[in-house]
Specification:
alpha+beta; five-stranded mixed β-sheet; 14 helices; globular
Length: 344
């Protein structure tokens, strides 16, 4: 019993630690699990890892039931919650179940994500990591069933890996305990570290944007975000490479509302369709209402990924079908609602 409590405590403390590091975890993103006998403990959908020490964010599910489904090729198997918890297991529960390790973390680490959104991700990751890690790279799949199946197939071919890179998504790391997982993640991010672009001025031109129809916008509170429109190259990325990974699309939508001027914004403004978040070239990034913590986290994540790309780097954007699958998915809609509730 002492060992069990110790493992839970170490996992919980680690979750609280990385949950406040925006270079590893953004808002309700990422998930962590550990296995105890016939039980898989996994983060609940929509909860924040940062809250691990102050809220009950983990839910226990029947592990043999999931493993039986995986063995039979049934990746649609529904996790059976134990103990009467009302929390819904993470969308990625099956991914954690199929990993053979006792402790598994799935994070959207910026240093890794900056490579995983590139067209030639495999080549560049191989160049950087060389033979330091035994890993596999899995093509983008819709989170949940499709992703679990793709990872399972990859692990059949490479059963000894403990690092799984997910294109346009993130990284999964497995280990026997928290210390092992943490060591691998630290070495991984340090090896893949990229120098971000640096900007001297990040101030919006206007402190308030008042439209003729009376609608008012305030600058986004995160100062560095203003560089997305003050720098021409970054604004071009916003226009052409917005939908890069699932959490960004789920919380910030399939495209950015970009305008060349205030005049264009006023001419095209529609109360029901113009977004809460707008990008006005050379002027600023504005919002009608204060962005939720979840949206702020995703906007900052996007910025941190984009400023680690040079102009020559080609990015892989999620296509229309992939975006639609995410936005029309009830599991992701549930996660959005829970993410709001736990941070209100």
């Amino acid at each position: 019993m002492t060992v069990t409590n110790s493992l839970r405590e170490s996992v919980t403390n680690y979750c609280a630690k990385i949950g406040t590091d925006s270079m590893l975890v953004q808002g309700a993103g990422g998930n962590v699990s550990w296995k105890e006998g016939d039980t898989l403990w996994v983060k609940a959908s929509g909860t924040w890892l940062a809250d691990a020490n102050v809220k009950d964010i983990f839910v226990s599910v029947d592990l043999p039931e999931l493993q039986k489904g995986i063995k039979a090729g049934n990746f649609a198997v529904v996790p059976k919650v134990k103990g009467g918890s009302k929390l819904r297991p993470s969308i990625e529960t099956l991914l954690h179940a199929l990993m053979p390790h006792r402790v598994v973390i799935h994070v959207h680490a910026i240093e890794a994500l900056a490579y995983l959104v590139r067209e030639n991700a495999e080549i560049q990751i191989e160049e950087e990591l060389d033979s330091r890690f035994e890993y596999v790279i899995v093509d983008y799949q819709k989170p949940g069933e499709a992703l679990a199946q793709a990872v399972s197939q990859a692990l059949v071919k490479s059963p000894n890996v403990q690092v799984v890179f997910l294109k346009n998504h993130g990284v999964v790391i497995g280990g026997d305990d928290v210390a092992e997982v943490e060591a691998v993640l630290n070495l991984l991010t340090a090896t893949l570290s990229l120098q971000p672009l640096i900007f001297a001025n990040s101030q919006p031109v206007l402190d308030e944007l008042c439209l003729k129809n009376g609608v008012k916008y305030k600058p986004v509170a995160i100062e560095k975000i203003q560089n997305l429109v003050l720098d021409a190259a970054l604004l071009e990325r916003v226009k052409t490479a917005w939908a890069l990974y699932p959490d960004h699309v789920v919380f910030l939508g399939h495209q950015a509302d970009c305008y060349e001027s205030v005049e264009q914004l006023e001419n095209e403004f529609e109360i029901d369709s113009t977004g809460d978040l707008i990008f006005v070239k050379g002027l600023g990034v504005y919002t009608k209402a204060a962005l939720s913590p979840a949206k702020q986290a995703q906007l900052q994540c996007y910025y941190d990924v984009i400023v680690r790309q040079t102009k020559q780097v080609a990015l892989r954007v999620l296509n229309h079908q992939q975006v639609t699958q995410l936005l029309d998915w009830d599991a992701e809609q549930h996660r959005q609602q829970i993410a709001k509730q736990v941070r209100n």
